[in-house]
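Why does residue order matter? Because the sequence determines the fold. Keep that principle in mind as you read this record.
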Amino acid sequence: MATMHNEDLFETTKMSFGEHLEELRVCLVKSLIGLAIGFLVGLFVAGPVVEKIEGPLQRGLANYYFNKTKRELEGQYGPLQDDLETFMRKENFVYQEVYWEVNEVTRILNSDANALQAEAIQQRENGVGSAVTASENAASESGTDTPVDTDGKRVPELNAFEQTFVVGGAPGAPSTHMIKTRLWRPMDANVTSLSAHEPFMIYIKAAVITGALLASPWIFFQIWSFIAAGLYPHEKNYVHLFLPISLGLFLAGSALAFFFVFDPVLEFLFHFNELMNIDPDPRISEWMSFVLLMPLGFGISFQLPLVMMLLERIGVVSISAYLDKWRIAVLGIFVLSMILTPADPISMLLMAIPLTLLYFGGILLCKYMPRRASPYGEGFDPS
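Structure:
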């Protein structure tokens, strides 16, 4: 026997057009308030957020300068010793070739440094050079940093006058007779800004992004509360089931981009700097845009299984069509990966390979995900 149903499933949620607009206004205001609160919280953590975002870029720069130094040394002296390579990695040191005047090297090497330093300190105690050290003593009394030993006492420090004793007198006249030597220094792997206001704008942008992430559950709840009033009960059940899956896929794609894609992509891109002998000098503003766009592209593309199931459920594409046309689908995935990633093969492969696996996972989802029963039950006759 046919079962009678109430055809008006929205009987308890009917609203006029004006009431809909008022409901939308309330949801938007609540969302903006949540975003503002998240922004205020983001102002306190924007600094660590920027440091975290800079991490992959600084690692990429460090690897670039390390590889450049290693390549130059191996080109001159052959393979490096393991302890030297470990030292360079651990200390982040690079070398620099400088030229010394032969006369200066001779003057320094011929001086008895220990005896002359003791003589210089004795001269200080006897008052020699007090005129030279008067300004330095004043600076020390004004709070300038002064080296101290482990007991907290001031360590005797030679001034410019006293240093002439240690190195055997003042420098001589410049000479063109020079020798080339090698100095080591910490590598410069810092990100730059080209304007006075750029760091401020980066800080504000980081606070906005952090605030949006913190407030996103509240914002999505407000959007859902407005949309849910126009959905059938079984449609709400679909949202309750697939929204967490969609969010999980988005976060998985974004995490893949941030933790696994950035480093090889930067290594590939900096390789062209090495080929053309151009040292990179990246700007933090451009890097932040890059950091935001790539995880977003990965997160959106990881929605592929849900899109496939939606098309199968509404009858646009069948499971057999997915299986028969898988070669064309894989080709389309690689084309999409080229569009959503920078112009390098590594990031394209790191997106295309997971998407190919997700494509076949989408087929399994379509096949084994049970269909929900009709909300009207069996035998419903609207006539």
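The longest strand covers residues 93-101.
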